[in-house]
User: Fold BTB/POZ domain-containing protein from Heracleum sosnowskyi.
Amino acid sequence: MDKQQQQLSFAKCSRQQRCSEWMFHDVRSDIAIEVNGGSFPLHKFPLVSRCGRMRKLVAENRGSDICRIELLNLPGGAESFELAAKFCYCINFEITSANVAQLLCVSDYLEMTEEFSSNNLGSRTEEYLESIVCKNLEMCVAVLQQCENLLPFADELKIVGRCIDGIVSKACVEQIASSFSRLEYSSSGRLQMNRQAKCEGDWWIEDLSGLRIDLYERVITAMKCRGVRPESIGESLMNYAQKELTKKSGFWNSSNQPNLVTEFSGHERLVVESIVSLLPVEKQVIPITFLFGLLRKSVMLDCSVACRLDLERRIGSQLDVATLDDLLIPSFCHASDTLFDVDTVHRILVKFSQQDDSDDDIEDGSLFGSDSLGSPSQTALVKVSKLVDNYLAEIAPDANLEVTKFIAIAKSLPSDARTAHDGLYRAIDVYLKAHQGLSDTDKQQLCRLIDFQKLSQEAGSHAAQNERLPLQSMVQVLYIEQLRLRNALSNSDPDHINGGAFSAAMSPRDNYASLRRENRELKLELTRLRMRLNDLEKEQVCMKKNMEKSESNNFISSFSKKLGRLNFFGSSSSRGSSSPSQNSQRMDTKVIERTVTSAV
Assistant:
């Protein structure tokens, strides 16, 4: 407060000193004008000769020799009144883009019109605004910056509206000129637009970044109505956001001033919500990385629900171009214990999966709408499925991540989205490793997400030996591996491999040696699986003996029934079905017979 008082007193002294320099002193002042705590000792005649308001106020105080008048709510304060007083005293000064808005407002306040004096301050400033300022984009921006402290007077005098019209008109002219410069003739002789050429007509983007958010919003809205290119508007929004949302470090460094930090957070929230409302409706105009950046800010600043839902919908419509780093949104909510914001990502995935097919009135689905998003293509589904599997593997080690949320993320995509389940199996394996206290029911729910038939040979071999999986899942993997082995054995039959296999590039002796190697490897693999099945049978016997000792006959019978339903080698409904070990021996005999046959 002491510093502010010192600054005010210093400004008052300097103003009085400037006033004494241009005001004549041979006539004693007979009126004192007070504006915002500052006093101007002046003369009635120069003021009343040009100012209608001063004429009325002086007439009301006609009885006293020295009149003291206070001007309340004068736009521009003491600085604006000083310029108006100079004009009344015929002191020359230059009208520029830095003071024309102040002069227009103060001339209207003091009623300095042609009714009281010809070629008065109001008409001069109006002429300057119309003939010079409105025809120059940079000057219009400068005047708008001056209007920030002159509202609502500047709006009532239509200074803001005229400057915005000047900016938009100039931007449209520059856009048309740059479009003509990008025209070129194709190989067929047709005139076409070169989309790859850089647009040089967007130099105004940097100028607009200095405006306050409310005026900037009005400029961009007018540009969208006048048909300015969506790409140019998108670049302007990104440039403005980058400048306005990276000023926080200076505010955080200010010690013992928490009010400044709170005020700036409110300013950031207003900027984010305004920019989201101004985003173009066309797709692919705004990079998805920028959209994710806005979403992180909106979550951190607790922006409105409509703002966040709009961003989630836009991101969901082009999620196939996102990266893993984009999805890793930190959790800013104190009520959540997870490291990352899983709920937001789940809503984005739901938006991506539930895109509608009602695009009849929109070409190529190129616009954003509440119910007009095109259904994702199979290519996009495959890309997003890989992205989701990587995301699940990244968040799986979080000890506070609930199994229901993990399953919800995994099931948010259609069942046909994943062509391979290796990534999903890896994510579930990481989750099981990090959450070893899960119940058998939760483990089974997780493993039901995996289609073991879509696992690669390497992932299937790992799953067959993975002790973290439930027993039922391990048996299912072994069964699928056995089916694959059968197919491999049948495809490696020498009678099945005819002229295409015995090509001219390989001799019969090489083919014979290759077949022997393949049969030997398959035999070893079959032996390994048979040993694994024998181990499982031994474990079953041990469990059965232990359960008999504890007199749990009901549990043993139900468990045996469940194991009896499990089918290892195909159909078991026939009466002559044999045990797994007998089937393994029979297949082993077939392998030996095939080897002997090929040797002959």
